[in-house]
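Recall from the previous lesson that a structure prediction takes nothing but the amino acid sequence as input. Here we apply that procedure to Dipeptide ABC transporter periplasmic dipeptide-binding protein from Pseudomonas amygdali pv. photiniae. The sequence below is the only information supplied.
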Amino acid sequence: PYNPNAKLMAEMLQNDWKKIGINAKIVSYEWGEYIKRAKNGENGAMLIGWSGDNGDPDNWLGTLFGCDALNGNNFAKWCDKPFDTLIHQAKETSDQAKRTELYKQAQ
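The prediction returns the following tokens.
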């Protein structure tokens, strides 16, 4: 698993944030409820993980940050049209050097 001790990680973040004046309350939910709340944007911060399964940059960039993923795995709800354009261009080319350059620009 990507994070075998989410509670410890949350406590570490809580402690670090406290040092800079941010008070955080740790709340846990059953997985289905957690995902429902995350997709509804009912979180100030959340822990979520992703394990890449195919080695392609789009498995991370498009899936987690693309505008097309706003109702999927883009829990941050971040959408940037110039970024999305680069990601779409990279997906549409089979030229590996061009894809690499487009993904670098997107980052």
